[in-house]
Design goal:
Shape: elongated
Pfam family, one: ABC2_membrane_3
Number of strands: 2
Number of helices: 10
Largest sheet: 2 strands, antiparallel
Order of helices and strands: HHEEHHHHHHHH
Strand order of the largest sheet: 1-2
Organism: Blastococcus jejuensis
Number of domains: 1
Distance between the termini: 55 Å
Keywords: Antibiotic resistance, Membrane, Transmembrane, Transmembrane helix
Main location: membrane
Strand content: under 5%
Subcellular location: Membrane
Helix content: over 70%
Length: about 270
């Protein structure tokens, strides 16, 4: 007599699936030359061009390149998180990738963990390359002591806020082809009004007010506090670095971004 025994198939843990998904996301990103060039090399190109053209003193013995370093890092974080997430997710939704993933036993959380790991890895790569070029070619003064802690939490909070916002914004694009045209102009406007390419104090008051609504301005301000001497804090709108408010606004955007993600994210086109 034969006995049939049904054995339950043991599925991999959420951690194992998340790790595997993160590896897939990283491989897919670095295999897309356009994405790598736009996300990683564009900030490097901007630093090189602006550093060569705008090499002048802005006060207190600080060069524009030293000031620009904070802004271009913030812009790099924005590109790696908000722009990259919005465009890639809209494309994956349009070509059916998200629908296919939703139909597998993969935990939904593993998909988002993979995206977050990709953003953090690309962000670290961008920061590392920018700092290397800044130090070697332009003599940038790096943060010291406790300033690295400020650098770390501003980067993490800023990347988290922009990643969540990028996932939410991906739902605004009608399809993958229109994603870049939808997201890129918004990101460029944010960069121009948030003190990335110009001294923030030199912008019109209404631009400063609009910029203060979004996380990029606060990322730039927090990063300026670690690259610039305290004497230049007087040129900020409030006359100080306002690190407490920087943390509060970025944390608030993390909450807002999460709420928007839950409310708007979908696995397939309408």
């Amino acid at each position: 007599m034969t006995t049939s025994v049904d054995r339950a198939v043991e599925l991999p843990s959420v951690l194992a699936v998340s790790r595997s998904r993160a590896q897939v996301e990283l491989k897919e990103f670095f295999r897309q030359r356009e994405a790598v060039v736009f996300t990683v090399l564009l900030p490097v190109l901007l630093l090189t061009v602006f550093g060569a053209v705008l090499d002048y003193d802005i006060g207190s013995g600080v060069t524009f390149v030293q000031y620009f370093m904070a802004g271009i890092i913030a812009a790099g974080i924005l590109g790696a998180s908000l722009q990259n997430m919005a465009i890639s997710i809209a494309t994956e939704r349009s070509d059916g990738t998200l629908k296919a993933l939703a139909g597998t036993p993969m935990p939904k959380s593993a998909f988002f963990v993979g995206k977050v790991v990709q953003v953090l890895a690309v962000t670290l790569l961008i920061i590392g390359v920018l700092l290397l070029i800044g130090v070697v070619f332009y003599g940038i003064d790096l943060p010291s002591g406790g300033e690295w802690l400020t650098f770390a939490w501003v980067t993490v909070l800023g990347a988290a806020a922009c990643t969540l916002l990028g996932i939410a914004v991906s739902s605004l694009a009608k399809n993958g082809r229109s994603a870049s045209a939808t997201v890129t102009p918004f990101a460029l406007v944010l960069q121009f009004i948030s003190g990335v390419f110009f001294l923030f104090s030199s912008l019109p008051q209404w631009m400063q007010t609009v910029a203060a609504i979004f996380p990029l301005k606060w990322m730039g301000q927090g990063l300026r506090s670690v690259f610039l001497p305290d004497a230049l804090a007087a040129s900020e709108p409030a006359g100080s670095w306002e690190l407490g408010r920087v943390a509060l606004v970025l944390a608030a955007w993390c909450v807002v971004g999460l709420v928007l993600c839950v409310a708007t994210f979908r696995w397939q086109d309408r």
